[in-house]
């Protein structure tokens, strides 16, 4: 006596077969920022776009297949739709057994990132959104923004290093003793202040006449004076810069 399971399986016709979704490849954002060349980023994004497009087609196809199976079920006297509790569980199981994929990936967004936290130049960023500050965004934009942050931090660190070395070199000639300070930053700012004072004393000694455009009645101010030459405006000397980029002084009205 033969049973159903003894019979050789019959291949289902093409119009009753579900298609599988292609999973979107997941990436580690930190790895991408640290290691991927830009053309690899672009290639990945293009693949994701193609995959999303493919999955949309698969979704539409599978909707048609579900309709065909429903017709078959109904024709054989089964009516899974409309029964108590919605779709009967045997129907769901049947579809699953037939290879109906679960889940419908329709967009990439942040789901593509296996880890959304990235550390850039010692600063932790919770998500790509916080790096870009706008949406929608591409992975390339995220990566470029992240690399800009790293680059800026490196340049700032290099500038500070150069300035620090210059300040330390000036300390002996300014007679500033490091042992008088409890922290390096206090020591450095004391040197910086002394360097600025010395620069002003040698370039703008008291009595130096300077052009002044902050007064409507006169156009001159002398370093050390509290007011412009006509007495209308209060003025002081403002000094920008540091020992590396150089100093710049100008009269500032108050
Ligand atoms: Zn004046």
How does this structure look, described?
- The structure is a single chain.
- It contains six helices and eight strands.
- With 254 residues, it is α+β, with helices and mostly antiparallel strands.
- It has two domains: 4-153, no CATH class; 177-253, no CATH class.
- Mean pLDDT is 83; it is low at 82-88.
- The structure holds zinc ion (ZN).
- The site of zinc ion has 8 residues, from loops.
- Residues 215, 217-218, 228-230, 232-233 line the site of zinc ion.
List keywords for this structure.
single chain, 254 residues, alpha+beta, 2 domains, two-stranded parallel ribbon, binds zinc ion
Helix share bin: 40-55%
Q: Largest sheet, described in full?
A: 2 strands, parallel
Estimate the strand proportion: 5-15%
**Widest β-sheet, arrangement of strands:** 1-2
For the record, the count of structural domains works out to 2
Instruction: Please give the count of helices.
Output: 6
Q: List cofactors, ions and other ligands.
A: zinc ion
User: Termini, distance in Å?
Assistant: 109 Å
- Please give the number of β-strands: 8
SSE ordering: EHHHEEEHHHEEEE
* Alpha carbon gyration radius: 37 Å
Oligomer: single chain
Shape: elongated
What structural category arises from helix and sheet content?
A: alpha+beta
Which segments are poorly predicted (pLDDT under 50) over 5 or more consecutive residues? Answer: 82-88
Mean pLDDT: 83
């Amino acid at each position: 006596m033969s049973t159903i399971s003894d019979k050789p399986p019959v291949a289902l016709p093409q119009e009753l077969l579900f298609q599988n979704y292609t999973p979107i490849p997941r990436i580690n954002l930190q790895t991408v920022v640290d290691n991927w060349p830009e053309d690899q980023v672009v290639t990945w994004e293009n693949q994701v776009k193609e995959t999303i497009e493919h999955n949309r087609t698969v979704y539409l196809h599978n909707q048609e297949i579900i309709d065909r199976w429903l017709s078959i079920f109904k024709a054989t006297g089964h009516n899974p739709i409309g029964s108590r509790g919605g779709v009967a569980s045997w129907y769901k199981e049947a579809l699953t057994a037939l290879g109906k994929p679960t889940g419908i990936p329709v967009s990439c967004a942040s789901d593509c990132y296996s880890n959304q936290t990235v550390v850039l130049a010692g600063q932790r960023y919770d998500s790509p959104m916080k790096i870009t500050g706008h949406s929608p965004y591409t992975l390339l934009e995220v990566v470029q923004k992240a690399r800009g942050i790293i680059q800026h931090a490196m340049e700032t660190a290099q500038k500070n290093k150069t300035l620090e070395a210059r300040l330390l070199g000036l300390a002996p000639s300014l007679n500033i003793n490091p042992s008088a300070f409890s922290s390096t930053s206090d020591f450095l700012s004391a040197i910086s202040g002394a360097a600025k004072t010395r620069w002003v004393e040698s370039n703008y000694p008291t009595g130096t006449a300077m052009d002044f455009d902050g007064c409507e009645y006169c156009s001159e101010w002398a370093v050390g004076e509290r007011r412009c030459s006509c007495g209308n405006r209060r003025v002081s000397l403002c000094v920008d810069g540091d020992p590396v980029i150089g100093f710049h002084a100008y009269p500032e009205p108050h």
